[in-house]
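job 3f2a | input accepted
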Amino acid sequence: MLVDVFNLTERGGLSVLGPLPRGLPAFSFPWVDADALVPVLIGGFAVAMVSFADTSVLSRAYAARARTNVDPNQEMIGLGAANLAAGFFQGFPVSNSAREIMALQCTAWCSI
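job 3f2a | predicted structure (112 res):
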């Protein structure tokens, strides 16, 4: 709305939203230059460890409430497979959200 009011499209070259691609993203291999490989690997490892720790702690906490078992190895395999697939289809890294899990769990428990 402000872009139209202040005519920012013509004056500043500001575009609100371009055309959106249709359909699913295409498979592509993410190429990384040799000089960027080490920072990408370090960053990816850090994101993977934080994501795994967050998912592992949260799943164990909710599994304890539900009196079930959680296998951390399966958690790591699931996160790794999801993130690998996301990388090949131009997606975002996957993790969990404490609020979403809490809301889903409450919905499941409150409906019983």
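job 3f2a | Helices lie at 2-5, 8-11, 34-66, 72-88, 98-110.
job 3f2a | closed
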